Amino acid sequence: SPYFAKRFGEKWGEYRIVFFAGYSCAVGLVMMLSLGLVFMSKSVFQARMSRGGRGECPRSSVFIRGFSFLGFPMLTIPAPFFRKPRSRRGGASTPPPAPPGVALVLTTAEYHSGMDVTLTFDRAIDISAFDPTQLTMVDHFPGKTYSGDSISLMDVNVARIFLVETGPYAGLAYQLTASADTGIVAVDDGGTWAGVTDLNLPFMG
Fold first, then answer.
1. Is residue 203 helix, strand or coil?
2. Residue closest to 111 by CA, chosen among 42, 174, 52
3. For residue 59, how many other CB atoms are within 10 A of its CB?
4. How does DSSP assign 73-84, residue by residue?
5. Which helix (DSSP H) or strand (DSSP E) does residue 53 occupy?
6. What pTM was estimated for this model as a whole?
7. DSSP character at residue 193
8. CA–CA dist 20, 35 (Å, integer)
9. pLDDT, tens only, 51-82
């Protein structure tokens, strides 16, 4: 051809086989690249559809399906791995302390000379931890001082405290003194009794 002869010289015919081989290789590479892109896009689309459209990736990597083209397997490309964010677990919370019980209220108190004192409270009481040494009763007649000896329940909110003589008394009153450590507490919430100091008896609160 005069065109090729003018462009490549008079011996351009000797290069025909080289031109043809180069052209064939280029066409084959372009074809393989195009087919590879097509198969890759279809494989990724099918993998997403098999997961039901969810946006998260499974723990195992998703591999693109391989195929053979002219006896050569296609390179498998693993999909990126995404780790699910872990929810933060708060430390073991310490339960809040129980609110203090409402203090017991003494409603009435009666004294039976030289024998016992009867105490009535505003609600049911527990006397299992009663300390008799925390209660003192003075009697101007016959002029004696008494301390608690033992205790019993006459009702759910009424305690009878038996007395024992501990010494003389020179005053002119019937008075009861009890500390806050008598051990008498409320049944419902453990509220304590604050006690009394020189409480004149009988007492009607």
1. strand
2. 174
3. 9
4. EPPP-BPPP-PP
5. none
6. 0.54
7. B
8. 22
9. 544 444 444 444 444 444 444 455 555 555 55
